[in-house]
Write a structure and sequence with these properties.
Layout: E1 11-14, E2 17-20, H1 31-35, E3 38-46, E4 49-50, H2 53-66, H3 75-88, E5 94-102, E6 117-124, H4 133-136, E7 138-147, H5 164-175, E8 180-185, E9 190-193, E10 197-202, E11 205-209, H6 218-229, E12 234-237, E13 249-254, E14 258-265, E15 268-269, H7 274-286
Helix pairs in contact: 2-3
Length: 289
């Protein structure tokens, strides 16, 4: 069993310097700890190269701006720090977590404009997010929680606070023997899993929810590009839950999930079919080019 995440060897980049892993700590009155003023990125490195790295760094900046703070490191500086962190830890195939947050400072209430913004980058080895589901097809629960309206949250930010209901949904799913949970949006349309976008196949054509109230994932965009290169029709649209019965195949996409076929959602079953396998295998090749 792997060691706890606060008790490992290696180094974490924090605010421009490398800190021994076990010493990469923050104060208990850090604003993000109390008010979720934090944004992050999840990335994977393959053979020493972070896939679509700069797009992740750019999105980190956009996410911070959406929740009203500015990261005092440029995209170029973040790119350099990520590469240096991989090298310092001697990793080539790894997960990369960049996180920016409002730290402890003069403010300790809802307002935090006077508090410093901090940035950290950690890297570690991480296998398949859903284990053997990449071969057998993941089993998904259907969450009771819904993705909120864009009028209530900055829904296109990769912000820590937006994942609270995802954690609750995934815990409930795991308690039922599932790998993850499918979430609907505030209108009742199919949205996404707790940390991955979702695709369906019907009669050789692909259908995927329109990301108008949740994150338009970088892996999602990559897979849509792959499908279009193969001249496979892709319909980005609102999908009603009752449509699940008519789809033959399904898969999830995300940096952690990569491309993972789905075998079951609630009472609906899906084939781990040829197209799902083709896209999963094609993605594996693409990230290592």
């Amino acid at each position: 069993m792997a060691a706890a995440y606060d008790d490992r060897d290696g180094y974490i980049w924090m605010d421009g310097a490398f800190v021994p892993w076990r010493e990469a700590n923050i104060h208990i009155l850090t604003h993000a700890m109390h008010y979720a003023s934090s944004v992050f990125e999840g990335e994977r490195a393959y053979d020493g190269r972070i896939f679509r790295s700069r797009e992740h760094s750019e999105r980190l900046h956009r996410s911070a701006e959406m929740i009203d703070f500015h990261i005092p490191w440029t995209v170029d500086q973040i790119e350099e720090a990520k590469a240096a962190t991989l090298a310092r830890n001697g990793l080539k195939d790894a997960y990369v977590r960049a996180v920016a947050w409002r730290g402890a400072g003069e403010d300790m209430g809802v307002a935090s404009a006077r508090n410093p913004v901090r940035l950290a980058i950690a890297t570690w080895e991480w296998g398949a997010y859903y284990g053997d589901a990449k071969m057998q097809g993941a089993k998904l629960d259907i969450s009771k929680w819904k993705r909120p309206s864009p009028e209530t949250i900055p829904s296109h930010a990769k912000a820590a606070g937006l994942y609270m209901i995802c954690t609750m949904s995934k815990h409930a799913a795991e308690a039922r023997g599932c790998s993850d949970a499918l979430m609907m949006d505030y209108r009742g349309y199919v949205a996404e899993a707790t940390g991955a976008n979702i695709f369906f196949v019907r009669d050789g054509e692909v259908h995927t929810p329109l990301p108008d109230c949740f994150l338009n994932g970088i892996t999602r965009q990559t897979v849509i590009g792959m499908l279009k290169e193969r001249n496979i029709p892709v319909h980005e649209r609102h999908i009603m839950p009752e449509e699940l019965e008519g789809f033959q195949q399904c898969w999830l996409t995300g940096t952690a999930a990569e491309v993972t076929p789905v075998g079951q959602i609630g009472d609906y079953n899906f084939e781990v079919g040829a197209l799902a396998r083709e896209i999963a295998e094609g993605y594996e090749k693409l990230v290592r080019e």
